Give the backbone structure.
Amino acid sequence: MEVLTMKLNGEQVTVEVKPDAMLVDVLRDQLELTGTKEACGEGECGACTVLLDGEPVTSCLVPALKARGQEVMTVEGLASGGDLHLLQKAFIEYGAVQCGYCTPGMLMSAKALLDRNPQPTEEEIRQAISGNLCRCTGYIKIVDAIKAASEE
Amino acid sequence: MSEEFSFVGKRVPKLDAPGKVTGQLVYGHDMKVPRMLYGKILRSEHAHARILSVDTSRARALSGVKAVITAEDIPEVKIGWARDHPVLKSGKVRSTRDEIAAVAAVDEDTAREALELITVEYEELPAVFDPEEAMRPGAPVIHEEAPNNIQEKMRQSYYHGDVQESFADSDVVIEDRFKLPFVTHCCMGTCFCLASFSSSGELTVWSSTQMPFLYQRDLSMALGIPATKIRVIKAVIGGGFGSKLDMYPFEPICVFLAQKAGCPVKITFTREEEFMASPTRQPVICDIKSGAKKDGTLLAREVRMILDNGAYSSWGSTTPLVMMLTISSLYRVPNVKYDVTVAYTNNPYSGAMRGYGNPQATFVLESHMDMLAHELGMDPMEFRLKNANRPGDVTGQGVKISTCGLTECIESAAQSIGWKQKRAKPGNRGVGMASVFHVGGGARIYPSDGCGSTVKVDDFGKVTLITGSTDMGQGSDTVLAQIVAEELGVPVENITVVNTDTNITPWDVGAHASRTTFIAGNSARLAAADAKRQILEAAAQTLGDKVENLDMKDGKVFLKGEPEEWVPFAKMVRSKHFRPDGDVILTRGWYEPPTEKQDKEFRGNISATYSFATQAVEVEVDTETGEVTVLKIGAAHDVGRAINPMAVEGQIHGGVSMGLGYALYEEVLLEEGKMLNPNFADYALPTALEMPPIETILIETDDPAGPFGAKGMAEPANIPTAPAIANAVYDAVGVRIRDLPITPEKVLRALREKAEKAQEGK
Amino acid sequence: MKWKKYLLPASIEEALEMLAEYQGQARVIAGGTDLIPQLKKRERKVECLVDISRLDELKGIELQGDVIRVGAGVTHQHLSSSDLIREKAAALAEGASAVGSPQIRYMGTVGGNIVNAQPAADTAIPLTALDAQAEIVGSQGTRLELLESLYVRPGESTVNASAEILVALRFRALDGNEGSSFGRLAKRRALSLPILNAAVVTTLNGDGTAFEDVRLALGPVALTPFRARKAEEALRGKAVEGEAVERALEVAAQEAQPRSNPLRASREYREEMVKVLLRRALERAVRAAEG
């Protein structure tokens, strides 16, 4: 076992992990942050997207030890205090959520976008979530929600 | 129109959305219970082979393995709609997904390792992968019980009128063959099952099922455990789309493992397993002949279909019945003949998928409608309008159409994409349309098509709706809450919905046939109406007024005409509770639609109302690469009434994207029964970059049988998209693609053939 | 257990020492977007992974004289958004922006894209057209190799990832009379491997009417990224549009040897598309050169 220390959702966390553990498994199974979903295990659907040092990554492809000393943000870290993030509010209000399995990954990709580009065009929004598959919504209300959040 | 309502017609956010955007909501995939083991399944390496031996000794010896089972360890029971599917296979395997053995271990890695230690000796058998070949004499036999490889229970012939005579009367008759591929649901959350026995012997199964009560029955049969000892709880799931209609072998396997290990066991499919082992939409080979008069009157339709059943029969084997409805009743057509054969092959078996046969039937019919219009020299829109179903029609199959917005759907969808200006214009852009006919008020495929509801109002004014129906993520709980809020006259915030726990919730046949809003909505409305009556009666006694003078809205009880003077409804609930002969508010609603089962000739009105929709699309075809880009989609849907327009739009958008995938991108590729693309890189779902803008047009026909006028609408959204696109490709560049998906390569080949023909013509 | 040790060296030297210590049983990992799936599916076996993705010395994009040096650890995201690359090697920026998905572009690196040795990697094709060279550091020091020479067959590179590290790629920055472009056909606009991709670098004559020089790269039409040299020859000195271009495209379609792949496209379609994709890329590159 190896010691992994990272900043997770703003807090310093230390956890013992197997050397070949993937970040998604450490988050879900060891740290019980089950908000992050795994839907393909091959980096082809985006459901497990988290932010690693502010950048969107598919945590099913990230060896957990890659995060050593880095900052990781999951969907559980989006809301601050009791307040939902603007993106979360918009996803609720605009009907961007159906089965919800892709939602955490979508939110993290959207957050990565807005952090860099607070006023994206629709095309930029679509590009930013093009690595996140959704089977329920046809993406349209997700795009609407991200646009609305960016205009707040 | 919706101004008269407080909650119906409002864009109420989904009740479960906050839990989903924060990651707090626990899905079945996230669940762990104490002492829980992880189950894994060993599947066949061959599409058709005799199993000579299975050696599990090394797996059993592996540290951390708590149970290993093969067919020898379980009762010999066959499951599935036609009872032709052994849970664990012995004797022989019939497809590459076949379950041979299963293990339960302390963690997933150990379970996976144990699988690798199991050795199976096979003797390969000749296999057959094409349904037409499977039906030829001398083809390898897949089930001894079906020596001709035909699923006899679904060999059907239907007719009304006389097609032969009417083809003779037709001015134009055309005949074509179409082929539809394997595609699959791709729920983002894969299938799972968690089985646990209590010390008193009650089995609890947390499942991804969308049919909990039939599932309870199926489990009981497969396990040999009385249904009275089985509790089914649908955990939060990541999408259904029909994939969770059947009980699959992995579910009884999970229970057998739990039984053997004496610990709870959970099985979660990997993505690869989900692709290979959760059934697909059935491929279809379809021959169709259509005839019409010069004036555009549709006269006759003759359809012969061959379905690839795969190796086993699921609910999906009954999709020909839904295809039949469309073939007999989409547009007025006085003469119809339809024959269908379902053939066994050594492919993975097919199942139920959104639309349930209707996407295939509609692709064929609506492509052919277009081709007929061109033969007639008519605008395909005018041709459709001329033959559109109308309110009050009774079709040849005995389908009673009550409300019908098909004409409005066709006209408004066409208008939204500029049909008149854009049709039949030079260049490489084109427009196309297709419509859909589907059940919208349940579908009587089972002795009961009903749903039960209970409404409980507590002393604080919290209202709990306990519904038999199942929310897979589509948002039916929210819609039901709106219906209860409206009927009862309390704010939607006061309402909690409890669904899908067979120990608690009343019976329902399940989430299929786009029936939940209609059936469960009517049921919930009945329970809510009774609760309101009881509250108003209590109020009448307490306030000393006549009950007919009182009303309740937004949680306030008041005298009709004097809404300013009001008392909180919870106070009236308490006034009923806390008195000598007091009682609590606990009401029930049972709704059974006024429909009939089909007779032996398949005639009968199986749904209380029917849904219609038209989608019109504009495409651009790159004539050098063959690539098709969809520029815009206008989707006009007769939804009866949109209880929640935001949710309805969401269903339409999602349906269109699934239809877009069916049209252009998706196909399960099989080679000798093995899937070549069981992953999201090679099985291409549309991404956000593929989705065109969609204009949704909600046609509200206010159905008298529906809750507040609503009818089912969710499946239809994915049905007309593919034929509309195929028709638009034809309008753009003059080539007719008869098999999906419409790949660039097919388009380019067709363009070349067209050019060659033109050359020959000169 | 997929691997037993995961190491995070602080410098290239330390990384080399770690690799040496494992005597061929360790392997370099950068973004891991190709390697991790291979390890998960047990297509490769390693004892130890040496993660070089944090080494700043691998992350620079610099103009050194008329040469652009791109660190092997530069991500696709960085490449596609670099002003220098967009101006002086547009095809590479376009190729990088076509890789997989945003997440893959943030994780995956140009070095990884090369060492993974796929014949149609979206940065390898433009780098081939740019005639790039690779800087490789091993225990024997640094060697400079033509990018093209690093490819053996799909998945196999001459860069020994168990002993040495690809540290940078170098190519000449394009001048005013030069232009480049990248084109790609795929099933969909994201999350797709290419059916075919092509990169073109053109140098025009003084009045911009003829090709002084052209480099054409294509994938996957061979076991390695492919330079359509016969077609290049056919274009040299010829007018930027007209008969000669059409003839050269035919030559390219002849010399390219794509295969049928049921997951993507048939050989015939790919051969046909070689012409379409190259023609379009040429037109864009010429426009860029005329700039």
Remarks:
- Chain A touches chain B through 54 residues (CB under 8 Å).
- The first strand of chain A starts at residue 2 and ends at 8.
- The longest helix of chain A spans residues 103-116.
